[in-house]
């Protein structure tokens, strides 16, 4: 994300300190070892009833907690609970659990411990130990503020400021970790880095830059009101960034063959194409070479059998300009036996460039006679859900967009793209912004569409 943390720490770095403070909490009469089952704890909390072990002697709890630490008590047979206020209006003050027994090695601490602190116990203490000035969390944790300060006060520790703010909710997706985990584990998506997801890993794989995410977050600001941010706002910042940083290139998604009949077969011209819209003629790095031959490919959607005044593509008897190349005029359409399917088009080009058609098309040519252009796979990503706020739906899974990912296995690309590396970003002219995916192989590149060229968010919006 472009931010350098002051220090990267883990709660497990403080397991010894947390344990010693738990012992001190017992000594001060603010914690006790409990033997209730989870079901019993739930029932007693609902009835605001004290545990039968709540008032056991301090020395007894100290001995039992030591037994828990040394693995002498079975998993699930005891917990350490904070002695808070079972009559409080805030259910997060109902003697929250501080420690549980779990005979499982820890990812960082290994098998040194068989008791582990809870979030409610460790969070505030680690904040205090690390001298955090402000503890920031989302609004659902606001009811835990009482417990946060109670524990620090009970231990006589420094108390940071606590600020709560609303969670970021973006339209046409889900941000809940529970729902995201369900999508991943049940294979509705291809892992946590699926480009359809609004996870950092998914956004990175899709080709979104950290600077555009930071600009988006800065633009929407922090609020305590629960609101839904339209996906367009993020896309606006992505386009603003990639428009400046992604070099232009040409790729044809659904190729339609065009044979130029007045150009000699085998003739190859190498034309200059711009990497950047404002490329200066004296800057060689701002251009790349594209081959132009008597066989080129255009998008199927850029050809119609019937022309109209508001149509700027190719049609029988009509001319268009091939970007960076020459005007061509459709002279003949070759159909299959069904008289409907177009096999290829025949056209003539204007080497003098005197023809001035309105329509400009992107294209890719055969790099040498009889050799197909570079084949690439292109993945087109759309909104993951059809509804703006799928989280509100009872059957939210039925709202998944079946067309959130469309794979085009055989697109054609201009030759210079063969050297693109994973993570490289490009603007495919007239199509959108794309990034090289990790599924690419030396034999075939895979591109993910980051965002379309069309901007549906107003200019100047933040």
TrEMBL record:
Family the entry assigns: Belongs to the class-I aminoacyl-tRNA synthetase family.
Domain (Glutamyl/glutaminyl-tRNA synthetase class Ib catalytic): residue spans on this chain: 1-243
Pfam families the record matches: tRNA-synt_1c (PF00749), tRNA-synt_1c_C (PF03950), tRNA-synt_1c_C2 (PF20974)
Substrates-to-products reaction catalysed: tRNA(Gln) + L-glutamine + ATP = L-glutaminyl-tRNA(Gln) + AMP + diphosphate
Top EC category: ligase
Residue stretches making up the tRNA synthetases class I (E and Q) anti-codon binding domain: 360-437
SUPFAM superfamilies according to UniProt: Nucleotidylyl transferase, Ribosomal protein L25-like
One of the record's GO cellular component terms: cytoplasm
EC number(s) per entry: 6.1.1.18
Domain annotation Glutamyl/glutaminyl-tRNA synthetase class Ib anti-codon binding: ranges: 246-350
Family annotation (InterPro entries): Gln-tRNA-synth, Gln/Glu-tRNA_Ligase, Glu/Gln-tRNA-synth_Ib_cat-dom, Glu/Gln-tRNA-synth_Ib_codon-bd, Rbsml_bL25/Gln-tRNA_synth_N, Ribosomal_bL25/Gln-tRNA_synth, Rossmann-like_a/b/a_fold, tRNA-synt_1c_C2
Organism domain of life: Eukaryota
Gene Ontology molecular function: ATP binding; glutamine-tRNA ligase activity
Example of a GO biological process term: glutaminyl-tRNA aminoacylation
Protein name: glutamine--tRNA ligase
Keywords, sorted A to Z: Aminoacyl-tRNA synthetase, ATP-binding, Ligase, Nucleotide-binding, Protein biosynthesis
């Amino acid at each position: 994300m472009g931010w350098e943390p002051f220090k990267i720490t883990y709660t497990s770095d403080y397991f010894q300190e947390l344990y010693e403070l738990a012992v001190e909490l017992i000594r001060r009469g603010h914690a006790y070892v409990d033997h209730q089952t989870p079901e019993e704890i739930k029932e007693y909390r609902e009835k605001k009833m004290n545990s039968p072990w709540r008032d056991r002697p301090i020395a007894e709890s100290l001995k039992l907690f030591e037994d828990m630490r040394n693995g002498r008590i079975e998993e699930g047979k005891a917990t350490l609970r904070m002695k808070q206020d079972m009559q409080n209006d805030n259910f997060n003050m109902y003697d929250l659990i501080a420690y549980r027994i779990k005979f499982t090695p820890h990812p960082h601490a290994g098998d040194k411990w068989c008791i582990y602190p809870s979030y409610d116990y460790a969070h505030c203490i680690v904040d205090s130990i690390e001298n955090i000035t402000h503890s920031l969390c989302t609004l659902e944790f606001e009811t835990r503020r009482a417990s946060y300060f109670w524990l620090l006060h009970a231990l006589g520790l420094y108390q940071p400021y606590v600020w709560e703010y609303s969670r970021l909710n973006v339209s046409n997706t889900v941000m809940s970790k529970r729902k995201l985990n369900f999508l991943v584990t049940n294979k509705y998506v291809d892992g946590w880095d699926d480009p359809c997801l609004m996870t950092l890993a998914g956004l990175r794989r899709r080709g979104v830059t950290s600077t555009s995410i930071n600009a988006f977050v800065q633009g929407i600001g922090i609020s305590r009101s629960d609101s839904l941010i339209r996906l367009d706002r993020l896309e606006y910042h992505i386009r603003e960034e990639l428009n400046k940083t992604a070099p232009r290139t040409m790729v044809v998604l659904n190729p339609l063959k065009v044979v130029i009949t007045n150009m000699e077969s085998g003739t190859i011209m190498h034309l200059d194409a711009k990497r950047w819209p404002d490329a200066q003629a004296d800057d060689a790095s701002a251009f790349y070479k594209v081959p132009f031959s008597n066989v080129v490919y255009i998008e199927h959607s850029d050809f119609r059998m019937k022309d109209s005044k508001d149509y700027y593509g190719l049609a029988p008897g009509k001319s268009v300009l091939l970007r960076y190349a020459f005007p061509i005029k459709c002279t003949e359409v070759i159909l299959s036996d069904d008289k409907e399917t177009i096999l290829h088009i025949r056209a003539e080009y204007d080497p003098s460039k005197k023809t001035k058609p309105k329509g400009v098309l992107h294209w890719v040519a055969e790099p040498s006679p009889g050799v197909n252009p570079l084949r690439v796979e292109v993945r087109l990503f759309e909104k993951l859900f059809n509804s703006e706020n799928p989280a509100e739906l009872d059957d939210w899974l039925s709202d998944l967009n079946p067309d959130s990912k469309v794979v085009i296995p055989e697109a054609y690309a201009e030759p210079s793209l063969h050297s693109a590396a994973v993570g490289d970003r490009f603007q495919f002219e007239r199509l959108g912004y794309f990034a090289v995916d990790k599924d690419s192989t030396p034999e075939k590149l895979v591109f993910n569409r980051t965002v379309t060229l069309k901007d549906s968010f107003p200019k100047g919006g933040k």
